[in-house]
Design goal:
It contains 2 helices and 66 strands. The chain is mainly β.
Length: 729
Amino acid sequence: MPYFHATERHYFARISGFLLIVLFNLIFLGAWDQQPVAIAVTPVEPSWSWQHPLPQGNNIYGLSCVNGSYPAGNCYAVGESGLIMSNSGESWRLLAVSPTGKTLHSVACTVAICFAVGQDGVIVSGTGSKWSLVPNLPGTNTLNAIACPADNRCYAVGDAKTILTWDGSSWAQVSLPALPVSPTKIVPSHHTGTPDLYGITCLNVNSCYVSGFEVILSFQGATWDTVAQFDELALFNINCPAAGECWAVGGSGSIWHFDGIGWQEFQAGVDPTGTLYNLYCFSATSCYAVGTNGRLVSFDGNNWQSATSAISERTLHGLVCSNSKCLAAGERGALVYFDGTNWTSLTASQSDKNLHAIACPNPITCFAAGDNGTLMAYDGYDWNLLISTTGVTLTSLACPTVNRCFAVGENGTILSYSGQGWKIYPTSPTFDSLHAVSCANTRACFAVGENGTIVKYDGTGWSKVNSLASSSLEGISCPASNRCFVVGQGGLILAYDGQNWTQVGSPASSWLYGIDCPTISNCFAVGGSNVVLNYNGNAWSSSSLPANSYPVSISCPAVTRCFVAGQGQDINLISYIDGIWSISNSGTSNQLDAINCPGIYACYAAGQSATILARINSTTVTSAEDSGPGTLRDALANAAETQIILFKLSSDTNNTIKLSSKLSNLSNGVIFNAKCHNGPSITLQGAGSSGIVLNGNNIINGLRIKGFSGPQISASNGNSQLSCLAVEK
């Protein structure tokens, strides 16, 4: 959140008649009769959702569009961790809760229903936001592709030469004969098992072709026959724009063509590097294919040629085309659109670097850091890449306030932030890599690292502290300036009492990586062997987290609430609420290296490939009207404690909300967050009524308040934060 700097003060000073309010701890400013009271709304436990990249960062493997091409048509994308999302014009929305956590490889739609197939033979069906698992399936072999040539007929293919058919009511498995000698002798095959099948295309219900490992199958209404065999060649997809005209693509840039008589490799203009995973042909003389490293190739009737990639660092798997337009998708949520002339990226991504640290001084202000000195910032709306003054990996962040942060990393690197950008500390007291940093306040910080290194910040500079340990120190938490705990190699725990560091008894022998202390007498630590430790003010005790979670970071906004991030593929988020540890649905299998919770209902996690997830309660004001759905009054009436209220008015020109009567008092922790670019972006205009009343721990950002008869803004309780705020009587 952009708090005031000197230049911003000058900006507001030039506005005649405005009173600039810049308070970090509000005092009571006045009262009046019949104040509206805050309405008690029970907070809802939020779920985890993607914040970067957008719309999401899981691998996408399958695409399908009905009723036209993207963006006008209804399109679906499926992929890793049960991903299902659909478009509304140019916007994409994720299915809130997927019916499966299995990876989905392909999707196809009839007029009435869509099917997606994937890992372990899973099939889900649905449309829009309603999807469910298909029960009583005939097998568990992974399914790789699906085609639906009619409303009552679909075919799915997969591993071990699996073929399933849907007849409009149920799925059945096709019995296939043993692999015969190829009738079309292309390349001798030495494969004797049951090949995996990867792609399928159908001209109609009685004419389909399937590509796979060393094989191409054909179905012409009666049986599935092998029509071509290859040696050590995987063909990942196949497309037939007309009878007797087919193309198949695969490993090493392979492109094969069927002319109605036989299959031949097509070499003209083809780059043999990389793999092609999907293709689509509008006609015999117009085809497109996608593959590794964002590879895009097209066929003009004579040659295959490479096109300029809009997203060269990510492999593309899915492709759907219609009306001379195409949509491709792939790794880390990549979406690429072809408008008939050019390919453009639809993915909002600031970075692909792994993130190892995240710190949020409040629920709408965060920083993240990672590989190659990557630094990112969040303003409650967007994550943006920052200018970094280092190229080394950054491993930890601490932000005691919104205008004071520290980042540490390899080779003793220390960076500081004071509201005006990140700067490298010129004389670090160590060359040892630093793994973690924690600050009790802006003048009391410690960082720890390899070889037992501990360095201290006293408000003026960093200095090295004599350590009792020589082993690696991995995590630190300082709930007070005279109380810190450090964890590390071999279950090591160190304690600081304001004067000295001492080693304390530990019930763990495995490495401990993360620690957080919500109070001076209560701490939690996590580490290897899925261990979790708890300190009760006297001693440490041990228990276990779910297996294969590989916990590395923990954040506890309260004694009874903690959240753990881990590097497990199936389990990477765990919650502790009111004494119960449970697995959280993160919606991704990406490794998570860091987690920070600035509030009871506000948490952020970061990790692999710049993945950033959030667990927050937020609502968006979309209407400038005084009342009704989408208005500020409606949002405030339904706001629970810690609710974040954002502003995205439907009109780009009218950013003024005119209020005819008093608003309800803000509940404890409720946040108004409007964008701030050279001043407030939203105006609240009263009409003879009293202004905004804060109830404690509120944040008001990016608002201009005017026209109320009483105080424009006041507080019944303190400890609230105001920024980018202008007030006019």
